[in-house]
Amino acid sequence: MRPSQRISGLALICLLLAKFHLAVARDYTRTYLGCYPDPDNKDLTGLTGVSALLGYTVKSWLAVQHSSMTFELCGSICSAGGFPYMGLQVRVECFCGWSYGNHGAPVEADCDMSCEGNSSQICGGDTSSSVFGLQYTSPNLFKRSARTYFSVTNPTSFYRNVTAVEKAQCLLQCINDCQAVLYNQQLSLCHLLKFVLLPTELNTTDGEFYIRC
Ligand SMILES: *[C@@H]1O[C@H](CO)[C@@H](O)[C@H](O)[C@H]1NC(C)=O
Ligand SMILES: *[C@@H]1O[C@H](CO)[C@@H](O)[C@H](O)[C@H]1NC(C)=O
Ligand SMILES: *[C@@H]1O[C@H](CO)[C@@H](O)[C@H](O)[C@H]1NC(C)=O
């Protein structure tokens, strides 16, 4: 079996499951990793270059800050970029990242603030983050999704174009740091995207949008 046929089959399975579920979200499970020091608020820097996503503004220190912050809200923000880690801090802030723990060993007692959106959850401390791992349930499957946009400072750093004569060939090239594709069969043009969101600059670009499950 050629790799493209195999990928095509996998993609189809997820498309059928996703037929009535067009929400832009990846499926994940969450694991608590510890309370890590973050004195300068820069341990998790995954939202670098993102100005706003899912209706939330990203602060200059790379946090989404919101009065309804919960584990679930932060998870939906960070899963949009396929990040393996999220961190919550000072009741209301959410950070995403590819690594964590750059400022030393965890100190559990330092995470003593409940989340503003759910008092049963702990959202870090003054200078510490409650860090979680996000494990994606079906990382190698794709589903058709509604097009959703986000604002970025430099659009070309959030996608790249490759050639693909069929959908499977486009999906097959979505590896390493690729969460979604926008595929235009007529132009054989495959846009590989870093988030399950499209930079607004692609709002006039035609194509079918597929995101990782
Ligand atoms: C609040 O957080 C707890 C612990 O994570 C969870 O079990 C509960 O469902 C959450 N409440 C709401 C309304 O989401
Ligand atoms: C598309 O996005 C640009 C900003 O990148 C905006 O100026 C324009 O109004 C948008 N067009 C539509 C049709 O939404
Ligand atoms: C990628 O394709 C889009 C049109 O879909 C185009 O606007 C953009 O300039 C292309 N980017 C590069 C780097 O070729």
TrEMBL record:
The keyword Glycoprotein applies. PROSITE patterns: WSC. It is a single-pass membrane protein. InterPro entries: Kremen_rcpt, WSC_carb-bd. Keywords: Glycoprotein, Membrane, Signal, Transmembrane, Transmembrane helix. Residues 29-135 form the WSC domain. This is WSC domain-containing protein. It comes from Macrostomum lignano.
